[in-house]
Amino acid sequence: MSTRLLAGAMTVACMVFVGPSAPSDALFDRSHPVDAVKDVVPNRVMTWNICNPCEESDVDRAEEIARYAPQVIGLQEACVGDVERIREYLEYLHGLVYHVEYGSVLTSWGRCGGVPWSPGGFGQAILSAAPMTDRVNVEYPDGGSEDRGYMAVTTKVGGRSIRVFNTHLAQRQQEEVRAKQAGVLATAVARHGRAIVLGDFNAVPEAPELTPVWELASDTDPQCRPTLAGTCETTTDWQAKFDYVFLRGITARGHRVEPTAYSDHDLLYTDLDTS
Q1: Which residues sit opposite 196 in a β-bridge?
Q2: What angle separates helix 80-94 from helix 58-68, to the nearest 10 degrees?
Q3: What DSSP state is assigned to residue 236?
Q4: Among 88, 96, 114, 213, which is 20 to 30 Å from 249 by CA?
Q5: Whole-angstrom distance, CA of residue 217 vs CA of residue 220
Q6: What share of the chain is helix, strand, coil (3-state, %, to 5)?
Q7: Using CA atoms, how far apart are residues 41 and 228, in angstroms rounded to an integer?
Q8: Peptide bond into 53 cis (omega under 30)
Q9: What is the pLDDT of residue 26?
Q10: Which pTM was predicted?
Q11: Is 55 exposed, middle or buried (0-12, 13-18, 19+ CB in 10 A)?
C-alpha cells in the first residue's frame, strides 16, 4: 500500500471515531478495503439530491458515486461536513480525487451539525476531478419555505472548459416561487453558449415554471420534453421526474437513471459529446 493511501486509510479510521454527523457512519458494518486507484469517466456528469435530513452513511454515498465515477457531480441538500467526508471516502476508499466548491444558502445546526455558534453550511456542492474557477453562489430572492439558490463554476468536462450550474428550486406546491427562481437561473445560463445545468427542480417536465429553462436548453434525455412528458424517466421515490441535466450547446451520448437505497432521489448521470 502506498504511503498516501496508507495515510488516507488512517484518516478515514480517525473519522469513524471522531465525528461524522450521520449515526450510521459511526461504525462500519463491513470492511471497506482501499481499491486500486482508478480514473473518472472524463465526459460524465451526475446530479444527485442526497436527501437531508436522512441520516444516511457518507461511506455509502461515496460508494454510490464511485460506482459511476463521474468527472463532475452536483449535489443538492448537501451539508458541508457530509460533502467533506464523501470526498475523503472517494479518495481513500476508491482512489477518486475531487476538488470541491460549495453553494451553501443557509447554516443549520439541526441539519448539518457543528456547534450552535458555528453551524454547518447547507445547500449545493459541486465535485470535479478538474480544478474549478470563477465560482458564484446566488441565493434566490424568494426561496419559498426554505432558502434556495444556485451555484456555478467553470471546469473541464471531456477536456473542454464548460460552465456548470447546480441548483435546487423551491419545494413542491410552490409553483409561483419556482417560476421566479427559474427566471433568475435562466438569465444566468443565457450568458453562456455552452453550459450544463444540474439540479433538483422540484417540478415535472411539463410544469409551466420550467419554461425559461426549456427555452435555453435541452434535457439529457432526447425523448424527454414538456410535450412528451409521459416518456420521461422518473427520478424520485414518488415516481416523478424532478432531477435534470440540462444541456446548452452540448449533446449527450447517453444517460442513465440509477435507483439508490440512500436517498429519495435517484442518481442521474449522462455521458457527453463535448467535441
Answers
A1: 164, 247
A2: 60
A3: B
A4: 96
A5: 9
A6: 30, 35, 35
A7: 30
A8: yes
A9: 38
A10: 0.87
A11: exposed
